[in-house]
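[step 3/7] inverse_fold.run input=structure_tokens len=244
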């Protein structure tokens, strides 16, 4: 289920006012990004929209990076909510694999929010560095958990450990063993390799569409995406051995 907003009932009046003001600043910054693009983000323009000074804005966000981190975290959370909602509700085709449904939820959000998608996956904002293992990482892991669940539903850890990735070197598999879990829970290295590969296809086709590289397909872009996601799902499932 989509994340629930933190209740404000236990906060003091001052804390509630601060929370409301913070939400208004993030909302104004999002509107600015939608209108002008993420690389044109201006704290001065955001403050002007809200009728406040830049100095007052710094009271809530001490630096530009702090505001950008809040914007990226919220975008990741909203995208994860969209993917989770799609996976939970399904679509009109009961035979459609959960991975395909989740991927189409990802695609819909990206198409509906191209500027915010660009904030997440476009050219990095100059001189911005996301905090290591900070809120942006946690939000991204929440989305990865949805794809992991839908991709590997019904498989045991032993089956995933025996997945067919024989084209990968032992050194690479050892490297995957040492990586932090994508979704908060450790996977066997072969399963991690498959999940990363799937993510490349899920995201790559959407990025091509959002950034205008497949416009020649017109309304058929959705049909191509569904076919590709079906094929991807079937290929991965074939690589995992059946239980003895």
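[step 3/7] decode complete -> sequence:
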């Amino acid at each position: 289920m989509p994340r629930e907003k933190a209740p404000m009932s236990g906060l003091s009046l001052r804390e509630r006012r601060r929370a409301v003001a913070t939400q208004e600043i993030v909302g104004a910054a999002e509107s600015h990004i939608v209108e002008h693009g993420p690389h044109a983000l201006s704290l001065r323009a955001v403050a002007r929209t809200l009728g406040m000074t830049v100095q007052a804005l710094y009271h809530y966000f001490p630096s530009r990076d702090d505001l950008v981190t809040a914007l990226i975290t919220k975008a990741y959370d909203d995208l994860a909510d969209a993917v989770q909602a799609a996976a939970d509700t399904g679509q009109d085709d009961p035979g459609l694999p959960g991975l395909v449904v989740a991927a189409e939820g990802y695609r819909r959000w990206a198409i509906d929010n191209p500027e915010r998608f660009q904030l997440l996956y476009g050219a990095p904002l100059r001189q911005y560095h996301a905090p290591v293992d900070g809120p942006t990482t946690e939000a991204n892991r929440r989305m990865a958990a949805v794809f992991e669940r839908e991709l590997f539903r019904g498989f045991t850890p032993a089956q995933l450990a025996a997945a067919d990735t024989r084209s990968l070197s032992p050194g690479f598999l050892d490297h995957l063993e040492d990586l932090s879990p994508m979704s908060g829970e450790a996977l066997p290295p072969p399963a991690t390799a498959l999940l990363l590969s799937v993510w490349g296809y899920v995201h790559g086709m959407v990025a091509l569409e959002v950034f205008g590289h497949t416009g020649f397909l017109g309304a058929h872009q959705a049909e191509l995406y569904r076919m590709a996601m079906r094929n991807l799902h079937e290929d991965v499932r074939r690589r995992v051995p059946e239980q003895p």
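[step 4/7] annotate
The first helix runs from residue 13 to 36.
The chain has eleven helices and no strands.
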